[in-house]
């Protein structure tokens, strides 16, 4: 679940499903406010954990930031060296603009049929 979804649930007063996050005490909670003060759990179970670890390692290696596991207990995050890792992709290098529009339209159509929004 995306952080924005947790914020929406907090704003609207909805509970969050099990397994989305933990409170500051490290216990699983359905309370979005507690999750926002605590931590989100990785999406996609082990696959999400591995993606998160890959990005953290790239950030640490490329930019010299610290790893989250190295953060001393009690150290506020604003006093901790964090990196920012952004991948920018130029679609024109992958497909022509005409192909890109056709593929995008098709994918958007299929996604809208499979994943209707509840908002």
Low-confidence stretches: none
Overall form: flat
Q: Helicity, in percent?
A: 40-55%
For the biggest β-sheet, the strand order reads 2-1-3
**Oligomer designation:** single chain
In percent terms, what proportion of residues is strand?
A: 5-15%
Q: Tell me the series of helices and strands, N- to C-terminal.
A: HEEHEHH
Number of strands: 3
Radius of gyration: 19 Å
Estimated structural class: mainly alpha
Mean pLDDT: 80
Q: What characterizes the major β-sheet?
A: 3 strands, antiparallel
Number of helices: 4
Distance between the termini: 15 Å
Provide structural commentary.
The chain is mostly helical. It has helices at residues 3-12, 32-37, 45-63, 97-114, and strands spanning 21-22, 28-29, 39-40. It is built from four helices and three strands, in the order αββαβαα. The protein has a three-stranded antiparallel β-sheet with strand order 2-1-3. The two termini are 15 Å apart.
Q: Key features?
A:
119 residues, 45% helix, three-stranded antiparallel β-sheet
Topology:
Elements: H1 3-12, E1 21-22, E2 28-29, H2 32-37, E3 39-40, H3 45-63, H4 97-114
Antiparallel strand pairs: 1-2, 1-3
Describe this structure in a few short sentences:
This protein has helices spanning 3-12, 32-37, 45-63, 97-114; strands at residues 21-22, 28-29, 39-40. The chain is mainly alpha-helical and 119 residues long. Strand 1 and strand 2 form a beta hairpin.
